[in-house]
Amino acid sequence: MMGVCMRYASSIEEAEDWLQDGFIKVFNTLHQYSFKGSLEGWVRVVIRNQALQNIRKAKQSALITLVDNDYLLEPSTVDDEINSIPQFKAIELIQQLPKGCRAVFNLYVIESNSHKEIAQILGVTEGTSKSQLNRARKLLKEMLYDKGLYLAKK
């Protein structure tokens, strides 16, 4: 579950705090587990939702709507590059994204949610979700390029 928190948090310390908050939530809501599906899957959803709730609470770096053609990249290119590097390096790069971009990137690329679902989870519009994903991809592409892990032009 620490891995789930690490994908959304900016630091190990923040992830640890969120993990603790998440397990408190798990223990407080354990009676709601219906024994349908795996316990691990249910716990993962509770932990993820707690991490997202923490992001919403800290909306000081709120989701910024950026609609700019510079951010419209080929969807699979950067996602494939991120998936092809070791997990610890991918998490390190994802953690450097602004909170809104990081949340949308994780929900869309890692957890395969649609923009409609992401909009509902984060309380934003679908357009904001799309622009944040594109911004995240652009930033990741630049980071990968700077580290020599992405050979295409910036």
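(ticket continues) Second input and output from the same batch:
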Amino acid sequence: MTSPRTPGQVLREARRKDSRDKRARVLHTLDELLTRGEPVTFTTVAKAAGVSTWLVYAPGVREHIESARAQQARTAASGDEPRSASGAMSIRTDLEVLRADNQRLRGQVSDLKEALQRQLGRQLDQLQATDLTDRIGELTAQNQELQGQLTQLQHENQELERRLVESNDDLVAARASLRRMIRIENS
């Protein structure tokens, strides 16, 4: 009995299949370009196959493209001169395309950085506002509790002061009574 696959395994298998499909598409496109006699460059292969330029430079694919380019260079060197001029133009075109792509990607990276900074700023503001609201609620509850304790302590203090006054009055009366008794006893 096979154990159920984890989501990670499913994703890895899907990624491997996608990679195999893209590599096969690159090799098929490379064969078509060679068959038609079109100049083979990394950029033209990537665009024709509909894959990233990173993939055509990856090990296992790069060797095939370099081999095809070398084959075209040998054919051009043995055949006619105009082919090498077109190869130089193709390299210049590839360079310009790469520069344009690089500039576009840098712009996208800059835009994404700015968007991320704005989003993080908004999240930070929301967190701070939420934290402050929570803190205000806590402080208000503590203040009400302390107000209640203060009122209770004030009542207790008034009661103690009243009892102290009564005790002082009783003490004064007891002393006066004691003095009278001592005078009566002495006379």
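Agent notes: The two ends are 119 Å apart (CA to CA). The chain has a mean pLDDT of 87. Closing as not reproducible unless the customer responds.
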